[in-house]
Every structure is written in C-alpha cells, then in structure tokens.
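Quick log. Single chain, no ligands specified.
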Amino acid sequence: MRKDCSTCEFNFEGICAGSGNVYRYGEPITDDTKCCNDWGASFKYFEHQTTTAPRFLREAYNGGHISYQDFSRLVDDYNEGRPVSINIFDAIKCVYGISMVDIAVVLGVSFGVVYSAKTKGFAKKRIAQFASGLCVPEGLLLNTSTNDFDKLKKCKELFFAKPNIDASLASMPDWKMQLAREISATYVHCPIHTAKILARVDYLYWDKGVSLDEYTQSERAFILYTAKGTKKYQPTHHLEYYLDIACQPHMRSEQILMNHS
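-> predicted structure:
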C-alpha cells in the first residue's frame, strides 16, 4: 500500500483533516494518489502493515520494543531491500525454522542460557560454543541484518547436515519434558505426544488473518490445535505464548463465547 491520501488517517470521506502541503484543512481531496508531509497511517494501512510485515518486526512492535513510527520505517526499509538489524535468534528461527528451545537442546545447555544470550548478549565463554553448534561464523553471530539471510541459508545447510540432527532436535531432556507436561496439563490440555511437539515453541504471537507461512512447524501445530475450538468456544482468534528465562510458559488466548441458549 502506498503512503498517499487514499491511506491517510486525515482523509475523512474525501475531505482533508490534516495540515500538510497538498490540501488545506477542510479542502476536498480531488486526487487521493498524492502524499504530503502530514501523512499518517489510516486504520486500513495500519492493519495491512501489522499483518503483512516480516514476523520479527511484527513481534518487536507487538511486544512493545519499538514504536509504530520505527516499525513503519523499518518495514519500508525491509521492503525496499535496505538492511534491517535483526537478533541472531530471530534470524535463526526465520531461516533455520528452529526455536531457542531447539537450540538449547542441540547445544546441551539450559533454556536460560539461550534466553540470556538473546536478551542480554553472549557471554564470551559461550560465543565459540554457539557459533560451532549453529554452524554460524562468530562475526555473524554477533552482528546480523536481513542482508545476511543468504549467508545463513548456507549455514543452515551445514547445521542440518550434522549426524542425527533431527533426533537431537526431537530429544526430551528433563527440563523440556517438564515443560511438555505443563503444556499438556495446564495450558493446552492436549495429549502428551502433542505437547512434546508444542514444547519446541519459545515465543508466539498470532492473530486470525495472519499467514502461517512464517511460523515453524511446531508453531503452526500450536496455532492450529488451539484454533480448532471446542463445543463451548469458537476457534481462537488471538494467541500469545512465551517462555520466560526459567522456561515457564505464559499464555493468553482470545475466544468468543458461543451462545447455547
């Protein structure tokens, strides 16, 4: 969508309510393909951006880590091919399709170690371990942008060429097994074999209408399982789920109560 009069919040049924350099306040908008220095996103434009933007930017905005102005600017940068800084763990999820849970399992460390590396930065003693385990050069591990995705695709090939990597990703150390039990008993109320798949999810923010293409296999399973609905509730239309540093799950979903009267 273009940033012009047709998508401006100050376009009130063809009348300008802004104070830009194209139309005066109260003046009819005769050409809605023009844009001025007072443009602001209409709800339609906002909805378009927040449902079609790259996932890592949507989650940064939805999590309150960046303002809408920064979010909108970064979306434009990304769409126009300019490099956008991205946390290596978000980049790994995007390119490899694995989560922080998966990384902790493969590296043989606790979830908290990986969580700290993402939120606080890498401890010096961990840099070589993460670089080797993820098949990523140390420099790329410490400074990543969206322009590095092609490099990461080559790293992904090396990672998945490791012997028994699929079995390693599916393994269930004690802390991950405990997480699966909590998901099964308290959060999703699913069979334990399903919970073992869902336990691979570290962070998930989804609204109905958002494409599932950018989500990992375990995340799609999580969304689809909670979205199917029950006899009492219609399907979930909003889902937030994340693990804290102690690997404790937190979940909020929004469902519409059905009327059975």
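Residues 257-261 have pLDDT under 50 and may be disordered.
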